[in-house]
């Protein structure tokens, strides 16, 4: 609802009134925000010394707003330069009646940033409040791969239909002022004009290995790209190399290469761009220390096919006019240059003043990155790499497919700490790895040491929790890790995982992000730097009753891991 009123200023006090509002007390600004007040404007009519004020608010509690001490102090502070009531000092304000409106941009709808979050397992559209950054709404669907010729590929047609239908539905209830984009990495669109020259390859396709020997001979050294050699198509350079060899005619028509977030940005805005977080995501295409294309990428003549590299979160343009009409989105809706999802989880923290900070981003992949960490501890054979953050800085990283392994090991029953105790007491071990996509033990076949004990469904889930905690702990030991470790994403809500990690890592303070959309929140923050994301954190606590047993169990697991 919009509120409008007129107030009366004493003659000669115009400049003083403006000065005091230029220096508005922060506590008063916060008080107004807490009451849902937004779009607050005050205009001065110098001829009559009248002040015309308008603001928007939903369900305004005017009495609570007025009774607060900070409001009372402000009125008293302003009483010497404007007409006020006695004895309250409340400004004399006459309500204004609306008699006409024209071309109003849906003032009855909440203004939001929509975040298009395309993961390997799920696709989401998250709506974040345009002022506070609070998560207001999530729409979600399962993602999949089209297993059909010429190779397994991304189902872009299905995804695009869902995006348009979902945005059209949301646009009826919310004013979507902008769209931010975050996606998984290792995915690229080979474009011929405005169409795909080839389907977007699924990075888990084993057929890319046909060119393994040739690719290994051509790819850059780890010291240049800080990209480890990964299986399947997880090195983006390996995908392009294979497509160029296997589909030479189609590849010869490719005039632009769009990284996955930028492909969707192009679909929404019609403008092509490149961006560093996806270019630097174990691709072999980027030199993260010099922040430029790798010599390999230049030699393959791919660098010239990438559009201009522009800032992460920069404005790509406004939504395509025909798309705005089809979906009901406002024509002014801004589309922003997207970001690799694990890097989006770092965004709320990359401006923090501390020297180093380690973030565990959990989803299909568990990605552990240390902001301002050193690169000299990276080991290629452990699937350690340098990612590139939104500021273009090389960021030491290690990862494993924690979410996928956890899904494979768990049951539908939730585990209690008592179930975890059962696993520890009986020495039931899950030995890596249960997914072949990557990680320090990607070359190993996962197995369970069950001691001849049949597990209940809840105990199976407990084993999954223990396994992922052990793997995270192991990876943190390999990293240049900070004293503070923040868990983002799916595992930030897994109490067993957090408790186990806190028990194993007394040298660190382990925090869980209470904002369950770390990836989406980071993408939204990049596109709207005025958002006030609080980044609420909870300290994970060790359970002293399980720590002695866990220490013995951990050492036994580490001894067996050392033999792999």
From TrEMBL:
One of its GO terms (biological process) is rhamnose catabolic process. One of its GO terms (molecular function) is racemase and epimerase activity, acting on carbohydrates and derivatives. It comes from the Bacteria. Residues 113-347 form the Carbohydrate kinase FGGY N-terminal domain. This is L-rhamnose mutarotase. Gene3D superfamilies: 3.30.420.40, 3.30.70.100. Residues 356-529 form the Carbohydrate kinase FGGY C-terminal domain. Transmembrane segments: none annotated. It comes from Marinomonas alcarazii. Pfam families: FGGY_C_2, FGGY_N, rhaM. PANTHER family: L-RHAMNOSE MUTAROTASE (PTHR34389).
């Amino acid at each position: 609802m919009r509120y409008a009123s007129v107030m009366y200023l004493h003659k000669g006090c115009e400049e003083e009134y403006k000065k005091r509002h230029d220096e508005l007390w922060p506590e008063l600004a916060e008080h107004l925000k807490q009451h849902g007040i937004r779009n607050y404007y005050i205009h001065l009519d110098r001829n009559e010394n009248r002040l015309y004020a308008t603001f928007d608010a939903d369900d305004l509690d005017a009495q609570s707003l007025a009774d607060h001490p900070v409001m009372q102090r402000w009125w008293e502070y302003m009483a010497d330069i404007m007409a006020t009531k006695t004895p309250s000092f409340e400004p004399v304000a006459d309500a204004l009646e609306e008699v006409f409106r024209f071309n109003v941009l849906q003032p009855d709808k909440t203004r939001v940033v929509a975040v298009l979050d395309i993961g390997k397992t799920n696709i989401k559209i998250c709506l974040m409040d345009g002022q506070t950054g609070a998560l207001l709404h999530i729409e979600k669907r399962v993602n999949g791969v089209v297993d059909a010729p010429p190779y397994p590929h991304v189902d872009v047609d299905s995804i695009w239909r869902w995006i348009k239908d979902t945005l059209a539905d949301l646009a009826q209830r919310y004013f979507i002022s902008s769209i931010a984009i975050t996606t998984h990495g290792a995915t690229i669109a080979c474009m011929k004009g405005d169409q795909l020259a080839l389907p977007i390859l699924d990075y888990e396709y084993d057929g890319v290995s046909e060119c393994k020997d040739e690719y290994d001979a051509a790819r850059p050294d780890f010291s240049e790209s800080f990209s480890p050699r990964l299986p399947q198509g997880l090195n983006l350079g390996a995908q392009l190399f294979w497509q160029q060899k296997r589909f030479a005619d189609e590849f010869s028509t490719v005039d632009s290469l769009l990284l996955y977030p930028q492909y969707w940005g192009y679909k929404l805005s019609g403008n092509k761009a490149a961006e560093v977080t996806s270019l630097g995501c174990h691709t072999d295409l980027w030199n993260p220390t010099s922040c430029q294309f790798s010599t390999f990428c230049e030699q393959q003549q791919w660098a010239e096919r990438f559009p201009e590299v522009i800032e992460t979160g920069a404005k790509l343009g406004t939504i395509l006019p025909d798309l705005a009409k089809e979906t009901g989105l406002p024509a002014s809706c801004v589309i922003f240059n997207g970001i690799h999802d694990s890097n989006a989880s770092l965004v709320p923290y990359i401006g923090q003043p501390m020297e180093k900070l380690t973030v565990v981003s959990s989803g299909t992949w568990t990605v552990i990155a240390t902001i301002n960490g050193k690169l000299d501890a990276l080991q290629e054979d452990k699937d350690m790499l340098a990612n590139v953050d939104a500021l273009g800085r090389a960021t030491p990283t290690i990862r494993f497919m924690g979410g996928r392994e956890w899904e494979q090991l768990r049951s539908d029953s939730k585990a209690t700490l008592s179930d975890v105790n059962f696993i520890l007491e009986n020495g039931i071990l899950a030995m890596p790895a249960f997914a072949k996509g990557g990680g320090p033990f990607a070359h190993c076949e996962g197995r369970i040491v069950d001691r001849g004990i049949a597990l209940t469904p809840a105990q199976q889930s407990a084993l999954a929790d223990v396994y992922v905690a052990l793997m995270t702990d192991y990876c943190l030991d390999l990293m240049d890790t900070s004293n503070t470790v923040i868990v983002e994403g799916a595992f930030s809500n897994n109490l067993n995982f957090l408790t186990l990690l806190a028990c194993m890592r007394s040298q660190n303070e382990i925090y869980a992000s209470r904002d369950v959309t770390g990836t989406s929140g980071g993408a939204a923050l990049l596109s709207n730097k005025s958002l006030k994301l609080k980044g609420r954190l909870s300290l994970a606590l060790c359970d002293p009753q399980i720590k002695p047993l866990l220490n013995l169990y951990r050492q036994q697991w580490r001894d067996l891991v050392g033999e792999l």
